[in-house]
Amino acid sequence: MHMLTNGWMRTGLTLLSLGVMGCESADSSDIKTSGMHATFTAVTDGTGTEATAVLRVGGSASNTFVKLSSGDALAVAAGTETDTLTETHLGDFYSYLGSLEADDPDTLLTFSFTRAEDTSAPASTVTVPNAFSITAPLASAHISRAAALVISWDNSGTSDAMAVAVRGNCIIDHTHTLTGDTGSYTINAADIRTPEGRETDACAGTVSVTRTRAGTLDPAFGEGGKVTATQSRSVDVTIDP
Fold this sequence. Notes:
CATH architecture of the largest domain: Sandwich
Strand content: over 45%
Mean pLDDT: 93
Structural class: mainly beta
Largest sheet: 9 strands, mixed
CATH class of the largest domain: Mainly Beta
Low-confidence stretches: 5-19
Number of strands: 18
Radius of gyration: 19 Å
Helix content: under 10%
Number of domains: 2
Shape: globular
C-alpha cells in the first residue's frame, strides 16, 4: 500500500481505537443490504489512492459493524484498475482497505459491494478533487505557538470542502473545517493549546490541508451513508513555544 501523510495515518489510528469502545459486529450473511449504512473514503497524497470501506448495521451512529461473510466482497476501481478490499479489525470494529495507482484529478472511483445472496450495491462513485501544494509554512520551518500561523496552498478556488490541521505531541491537535477555498487560513495563537506541563517544550509537528469531494452512494444501501475522495497534503515542521 502507498503511504499516506502522517496526519491521516494518525487520524485513522485514532478512529480505529475509538471504534472498539462498546461496539459489536455482525456477519454480512445475516444482514440485508437495505439494512446497512456504508462509509467509503478515498485519500491521495499524490502517490496513489488509499481506499477504506466501513459497513454498519443501521445508521451512521450505529456501533454494530459488518464483517463480510464468504461470497460477499468490497472493491474499488478506477478505469481498468481494480483492488479487492482487505479486512482489518480491532476487536469488533471492522474496516476494509485497498489501494490504487490512480490519483489524477477528476478520476472516477467506484466502490462496489457484491453479494452472494442479497442485493449487490455495485456503484458508489466519486471523482478525485484537484491537486494542490502547501506553500506556507515551508517544510522544516519553525512555527511558534505564541504567534498566529498562516497556512497557504495553491490551486485554490474550488467548491470542495477544505480543512486544515496542526498536530504535535507538545500541543493539543487542532483541526478546523473551512468555509470556502480561498488558498489561505490563519490559525490564531490562542487557538493552539498546550497540554499541562508542556508549556516550554518544542516538538516535531505536522501541518496538513485536505480537500474533500462528496460522491453518490449506491441506493441499495437502505440506511444511507457517504462516499468521499480527498486530496491530502502535509509538511513537517518544528513547533516552538
